[in-house]
């Protein structure tokens, strides 16, 4: 929310500076990111938003200047590119057209535009971008404490059997040297002897690292770099240093390494075992001086290392820290490192080194103790008030050698202690005190999902027992991706408001390097959640730079035969339907289309068209007469049965419908990209699957599909598989089943979205309202009544394992698209044109939503007041919208106080009202 609010405040301030009749370009981005420091060569596309005090404002032309320095740009000298005036209304994804840009070089740019009346704007503020290094110039040398050959870690992964096996477990536990899994500190002194123009660091520390220069942390990332399949892609991060971070004379680079997903451990809890090698570091620092010379500091044999005070670190098991092992000033100048050992040059990871362009994970929020309970003397359980993904920060004082053990969990046992039975145990943090005052500590390389904290054998705040350490303060830190929030939603309905909060707390908890299923037990990127919650994710978060990284991971994980596994990155191979389920794998086909719809950018469709096509072809090899029969189906569908595989609906119906969905999108992609040879092939395939589906699953006499379940009938309606002449009858059967179930759903993880949207898109929003406006299970209200702060894995939290899953959060799409009525126009993707068509349902009296589109803020806010419905909307500059109201054609409609029949609008703010 902070990023979203900052953008809104900044744009509002800029609007106040715009003269009447003027227009101003703001929020400049390169490759969909503000001032990026690692733009890949030949992919520079420039964009900006527009603000104006006038209504119906638009752009008819622009001029871009790109310069090699800010000084040149200030005097309007575009020595790299001067586009001249370009007559175009396009303000997004303008392809750079200047001279060849140099790698590892920073450029500055600005833009001015002409509005619809031909008036020219002021120049925008200056933006910048830095070109990433060429692969061959990085020439990485990887260093650490031990080579992979000497570490005795298991080799790779077996894609035919589960990674979790006894041999590998023993191999990790019995590794001959703890350096194979131990956190280490690395240091490198270097000298600066001239005045610096700029200094840039390129770094990848695997699994995760913390970089310091002269003792100060560089950047604000946690768990960097983002997770990948390290056999295919290895991310590196780029940092621009400011003058204060380097000093004349000696400087010191310090790097702390941890295991992460690169090197999981067997001790304590773990979901699986996988190792790509022992902790390892690549670093390159380029220092450019004002006299034109430069120095390169790289990871090589000249570095030294020592074991860090982090004696244990596991992404799944926790972290231990012994403060008595600290070496004060180890990452600063003047430190005596004579006892440190020389690093060894290690085997490089197999993956391609790529610039990380997705946003980092950061600490976003912190919570104080909401309540504390002493279960027995010196045994405390703390409620932090919010279930989240993250870790604790403790402040303690005590004697040297005393240890504080911190247990965390998202639920409590019957006896009031913290429970980990359903979320993976044992998971804890051990901190060993050095004594001599208040000590503050938090983990660096492990996180967990928790709301409650248990600490035994301590004093709390006051020292009552001199033989025990005293906990002075406790906080929980909420970590998630720093991409920023794009939307807001609120209404008169308390259940919907709280549901929105629960869902988004769960999304944030799982918005990590990848979208995970849960932040404790698995931390795995199960793919179905992404496309089934796709519209809700897009409305709520800025995913412009995040989704391309997801698609790279999907591409990396695709097998030679075309299979896209159900989890990406595929650190563990579960096998069978848990590896190969069409409802999961089809994300690789759907995701580029979602990106195109919301951002108007077809680049992912173009880049990953071979991935999309190859996956659909793979499903074809698994089909018999176009029917696909494997997979998990409507996972966790609701009923009296145990949750798991689809029980209410045929698995083959689910699998085949997603085969159809994928083939249809590949056919559309072929048409969009003018792949003439493929258009007819995949259009024919789509038709053949549709015919086979209807023949296999549709009962012409009863007008029902499959088992007559809600999923069976909703999916063909939503996907437009049902023949037009039968659609009304199938919808009626769907409604009859919902009513027979007491206006309750029976769908699951996969089916919820199709059920919700089949109703929403076919005029049954009152049914949606009834189905979700209650406090019973299945429903969001039951979880609210249960007192939860995040969405859970099952409708009844008492039955499920994780209390922090967002897979059931598909109602977010309904909140934004139906209740608020913000609907994209598929013919003009990216919200260049869109619809405002709110649904007025139940006893609701108001709804307000905002969405930060790539063109600017869209607002839709309606309220029932004094016998009227008042709708306030905001349309970004250079876009248009059509308003559709639930009124008859003879209703009197006022816009900004004047009667009108015209509900097509250009940019601006409008108040629309009519009697109800």
Automatic annotation (TrEMBL):
<dbReference type="InterPro" id="IPR016007">
    <property type="entry name" value="Alpha_rhamnosid"/>
</dbReference>
<dbReference type="InterPro" id="IPR008902">
    <property type="entry name" value="Rhamnosid_concanavalin"/>
</dbReference>
<dbReference type="InterPro" id="IPR035398">
    <property type="entry name" value="Bac_rhamnosid_C"/>
</dbReference>
<feature type="domain" description="Bacterial alpha-L-rhamnosidase N-terminal">
    <location>
        <begin position="194"/>
        <end position="364"/>
    </location>
</feature>
<feature type="domain" description="Alpha-L-rhamnosidase C-terminal">
    <location>
        <begin position="826"/>
        <end position="898"/>
    </location>
</feature>
<dbReference type="InterPro" id="IPR013737">
    <property type="entry name" value="Bac_rhamnosid_N"/>
</dbReference>
<dbReference type="Pfam" id="PF17390">
    <property type="entry name" value="Bac_rhamnosid_C"/>
</dbReference>
<feature type="domain" description="Alpha-L-rhamnosidase six-hairpin glycosidase">
    <location>
        <begin position="485"/>
        <end position="818"/>
    </location>
</feature>
<dbReference type="Pfam" id="PF25788">
    <property type="entry name" value="Ig_Rha78A_N"/>
</dbReference>
<dbReference type="InterPro" id="IPR012341">
    <property type="entry name" value="6hp_glycosidase-like_sf"/>
</dbReference>
<feature type="domain" description="Alpha-L-rhamnosidase concanavalin-like">
    <location>
        <begin position="374"/>
        <end position="467"/>
    </location>
</feature>
<protein>
    <recommendedName>
        <fullName>alpha-L-rhamnosidase</fullName>
        <ecNumber>3.2.1.40</ecNumber>
    </recommendedName>
</protein>
<keyword id="KW-0378">Hydrolase</keyword>
<dbReference type="InterPro" id="IPR008928">
    <property type="entry name" value="6-hairpin_glycosidase_sf"/>
</dbReference>
<dbReference type="GO" id="GO:0016787">
    <property type="term" value="F:hydrolase activity"/>
</dbReference>
<dbReference type="Pfam" id="PF08531">
    <property type="entry name" value="Bac_rhamnosid_N"/>
</dbReference>
<dbReference type="InterPro" id="IPR013783">
    <property type="entry name" value="Ig-like_fold"/>
</dbReference>
<dbReference type="Pfam" id="PF05592">
    <property type="entry name" value="Bac_rhamnosid"/>
</dbReference>
<dbReference type="InterPro" id="IPR035396">
    <property type="entry name" value="Bac_rhamnosid6H"/>
</dbReference>
<dbReference type="Pfam" id="PF17389">
    <property type="entry name" value="Bac_rhamnosid6H"/>
</dbReference>
């Amino acid at each position: 929310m902070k990023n979203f609010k900052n953008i809104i405040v900044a744009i509002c301030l800029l609007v106040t500076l715009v003269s009447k009749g003027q227009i101003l370009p703001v929020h400049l981005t390169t490759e969909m990111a503000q001032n990026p420091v690692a733009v890949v060569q030949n992919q520079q596309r420039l964009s900006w938003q527009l603000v104006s005090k006038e209504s119906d404002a638009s752009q008819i032309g622009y001029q871009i200047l790109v310069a090699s320095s800010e000084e040149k740009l200030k005097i309007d000298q575009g020595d790299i590119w001067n586009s001249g005036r370009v007559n175009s209304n396009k303000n997004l994804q303008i392809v750079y057209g200047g001279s060849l840009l140099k790698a590892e070089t920073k450029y500055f740019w600005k833009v001015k535009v002409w509005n619809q009346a031909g008036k020219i704007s002021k120049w925008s503020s200056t933006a910048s971008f830095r070109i990433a290094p060429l692969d061959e110039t990085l020439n990485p040398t990887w260093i650490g404490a031990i080579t992979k050959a000497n570490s005795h870690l298991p080799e790779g992964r077996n894609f035919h059997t589960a990674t979790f096996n006894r041999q590998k477990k023993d191999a990790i536990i019995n590794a001959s040297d703890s350096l194979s899994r131990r956190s280490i500190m690395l240091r490198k002194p270097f000298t600066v002897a001239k005045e610096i123009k700029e200094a840039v660091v390129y770094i990848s520390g695997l699994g995760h690292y913390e970089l310091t220069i002269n003792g100060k942390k560089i950047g604000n990332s946690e768990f960097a770099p983002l997770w990948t399949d390290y056999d295919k892609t290895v991310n590196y991060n780029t940092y621009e240093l400011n003058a204060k971070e380097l000093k004349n004379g000696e400087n010191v680079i310090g790097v702390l390494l941890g295991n992460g997903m690169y090197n999981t451990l067997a001790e304590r809890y773990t979901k699986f075992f996988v190792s790509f090698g022992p902790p390892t570091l690549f670093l390159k620092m380029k220092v450019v001086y004002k006299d034109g010379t430069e120095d390169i500091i790289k990871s090589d044999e000249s570095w030294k290392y020592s074991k860090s005070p982090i004696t244990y670190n596991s992404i799944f098991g926790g972290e231990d820290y012994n403060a008595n092992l600290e070496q004060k000033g180890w990452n600063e100048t003047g430190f005596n490192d004579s006892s440190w050992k020389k690093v060894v040059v290690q085997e490089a990871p197999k993956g391609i080194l790529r610039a990380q362009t997705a946003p980092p994970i950061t600490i976003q929020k912190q919570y104080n103790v909401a309540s504390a309970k002493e279960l027995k003397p010196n045994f405390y359980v703390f409620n932090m008030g919010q279930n989240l993904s993250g870790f604790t920060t403790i402040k303690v004082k005590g004697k040297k050698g005393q240890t504080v053990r911190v247990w965390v969990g998202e639920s409590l046992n019957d006896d009031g202690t913290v429970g980990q039975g359903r979320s993976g145990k044992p998971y804890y943090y051990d901190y060993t005190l050095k004594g001599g005052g208040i000590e503050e500590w938090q983990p660096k390389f492990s996180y967990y999902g928790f709301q409650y904290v248990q600490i035994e054998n301590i004093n709390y705040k006051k020292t009552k027992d001199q033989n025990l350490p005293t906990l002075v303060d406790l906080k929980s830190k909420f970590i998630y991706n720093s991409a920023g929030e794009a939307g807001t939603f609120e209404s008169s309905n308390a259940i919907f408001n709280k549901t929105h909060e629960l869902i988004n707390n769960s999304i944030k908890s799982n918005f990590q390097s990848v979208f995970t299923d849960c932040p404790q037990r698995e931390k795995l990127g199960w793919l179905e959640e992404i496309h089934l919650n796709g519209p809700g994710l897009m409305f709520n978060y800025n995913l412009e730079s995040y989704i391309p990284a997801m698609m790279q991971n999907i591409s990396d994980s695709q097998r030679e035969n075309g299979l896209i596994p159900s989890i990406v990155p595929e650190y563990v191979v579960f096998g069978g339907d848990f590896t190969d389920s069409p409802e999961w794998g089809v994300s690789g086909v759907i995701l580029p289309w979602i990106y195109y719809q919301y951002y108007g950018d077809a680049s992912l469709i173009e880049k990953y068209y071979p991935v999309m096509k190859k996956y659909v072809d793979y499903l074809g090899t698994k089909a018999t007469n176009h029917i696909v029969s494997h997979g998990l189906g409507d996972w966790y569908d609701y009923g009296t049965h145990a949750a798991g595989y689809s029980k209410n609906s045929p698995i083959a119906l689910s699998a085949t419908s997603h085969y159809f969905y994928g083939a249809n999108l590949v056919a559309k992609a072929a048409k969009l990209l003018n792949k003439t040879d493929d258009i007819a092939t995949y259009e024919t395939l789509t038709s053949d699957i549709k015919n086979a589906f209807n023949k296999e699953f549709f009962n012409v006499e009863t007008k029902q599909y499959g088992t007559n379940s809600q999923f069976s009938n909703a999916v063909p309606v939503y996907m437009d598989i049902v023949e037009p002449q039968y659609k009304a009858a199938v919808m009626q059967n769907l409604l009859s089943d919902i009513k027979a179930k007491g206006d309750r759903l029976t769908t699951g993880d996969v089916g919820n979205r199709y059920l919700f949207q089949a109703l929403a898109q076919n005029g049954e929003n009152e049914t949606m309202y009834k189905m979700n406006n209650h406090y019973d299970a299945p429903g969001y209200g039951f979880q609210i009544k249960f007192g939860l702060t995040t969405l859970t894995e099952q409708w009844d939290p008492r039955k499920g394992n994780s209390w922090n899953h967002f897979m059931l959060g598909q109602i977010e799409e309904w909140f934004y698209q139906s209740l608020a009525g913000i609907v994209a126009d598929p013919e003009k993707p990216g919200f260049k044109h869109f619809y405002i068509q709110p649904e007025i349902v139940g006893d609701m009296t108001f709804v307000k939503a905002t969405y930060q589109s790539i063109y600017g803020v869209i607002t839709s806010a309606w309220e029932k007041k004094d016998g009227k419905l008042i709708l306030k909307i905001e349309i970004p500059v250079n876009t248009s919208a059509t308003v559709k109201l639930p009124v008859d054609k003879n209703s009197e409609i006022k816009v900004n106080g004047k009667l009108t029949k015209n509900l097509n609008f250009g940019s601006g703010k409008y108040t629309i009202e009519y009697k109800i």
